[in-house]
Amino acid sequence: MKKYIAEIPKLVGESVEVAGWIHARRDMGKIVFVDLRDSTGLLQVVFVPGNQELLAQAMSLRPEFCVRIRGTVNERPEKMRNPNLITGSVEMLAESLEILNEAKTPPFEVDKDTMPVNEELRLKYRYLDLRSERMARNLRLRDQVVSFFRSWLRNEGFIEIETPMLTKGTPEGAGEYIVPSRMHPGKFYVLPQAPQQFKQLLMVAGVERYFQIARCLRDEDPRGDRQFEFTQLDLEMSFVTQDDVLALNERMMIDLIKEVMPDKRIAETPFPRLTYAESMEKYGIDKPDLRKSKDDPNELAFCWVVDFPLFESGDDGKLQAMHHPFCMPNLEDIHLLDSDPLKVRGWTYDLVLNGTELSSGSIRIHNRDLQNRIFELLGMDSEEIEKKFGHLLEAFEYGAPPHGGMAPGIDRLVMLLADEPNIREVIPFPKTGDARDPMMGAPSILAPSQLKDVHIRSDV
Ligand code: ASP
């Protein structure tokens, strides 16, 4: 069994096997140096004269060949040590080499930062792009962040529950991806924009503390740094006030930074709290960047923005939910629902980090009549309400507890922690700005027979 490169410094004097990819090869006269890379780091391997066959084999190695090498781990002489490498105190003296698979010349160099490379090319060859150090580091950071959330939340009594991908629409304010049903001609599933209704129904089910690393799918027009699939840390709690949800999330973020990114500094704790009105008045925006210095990559300025209006006025002059239609109106404003709905504040909140909206959340409505009234204010008639949300309204009639939650975006959070300029750098397989996957070639045309199976006729 091979040893991982990160373990090699502990194995001085032993003959061990390593395996990975050729990162670089340097021929120094009769000696060949190879930097071998595996998922844990880089190791210098030396091929010396003596075994001519082995040396000739080493000279044939090219970048990204996949190899297995056996050799003895030696301490490097003092002045040859490389403090920048986790294995910088050692090197391997090769005894045998097996080429497991040759590699074509990669379309870009993976031993360098791939940021300047054309992005379409990086996405087409994402499996090579992910070999580069920065991208591999981002994958690991993402894993650390997700693992942290899992164990932290479990410790607080949350349980992780998966909710369906094939479901019925839940309005989070974006378009929906639809999936035709083969077994039910003319009917469609919808991919979830968020597990919003399911998590609320889990509160009715008595779960009290739920979380999920939730995949969300939104068919939106390309805008800025947006992805059509993204991941949220979706959570929901019963019997809580807004302050409870904010306090728990604040503690979680502070502990995350301490554990995963100890070099970063949170500008201010407790996180400053602004109302939506204050934020708009002072900063002209609902996601203010409160960093003292925008040049300090280690400064993290979190803040809460609270008291968002429950509604805004849509292009057609109709009311629309500012966040989503399940948010609880602030009880102080509830008397304005009919007379001046745009003045009604919601128990809604956003968590903002360095000017990026990291999360939205709210206390939810858990009362049938109130929820029905909100749907009506949003312009739905009773038939539409029953068709779309009858199940939720009915559930509220079975002792639904008061509840609330939020859903921090994992991609954005990891992006900010990794100091990356966009979320594609921290998503393993992102889509292009126009929703394509150049590697898989998605979306793609299906065979007419496949379409027929799902009762679809295509005009293109
Ligand atoms: N489901 C909401 C969203 O995706 C977040 C929440 O209210 O918990 O925007």
From TrEMBL:
Q: Give yes or no: UniProt keyword Cytoplasm.
A: yes
Record-level Gene Ontology MF annotations: aspartate-tRNA ligase activity; ATP binding; nucleic acid binding
Record GO biological process: aspartyl-tRNA aminoacylation
Q: What is this protein called?
A: Aspartate--tRNA ligase
The UniProt entry's sequence similarity note says: Belongs to the class-II aminoacyl-tRNA synthetase family. Type 1 subfamily.
State the superkingdom.
Bacteria
Give a single Pfam family match.
Answer: tRNA-synt_2
Positions of transmembrane segments: none
Do the record's keywords include Cell wall biogenesis/degradation? no
Which residues lie within the region annotated Aspartate?
A: 196-199
Q: How does it assemble?
A: Homodimer.
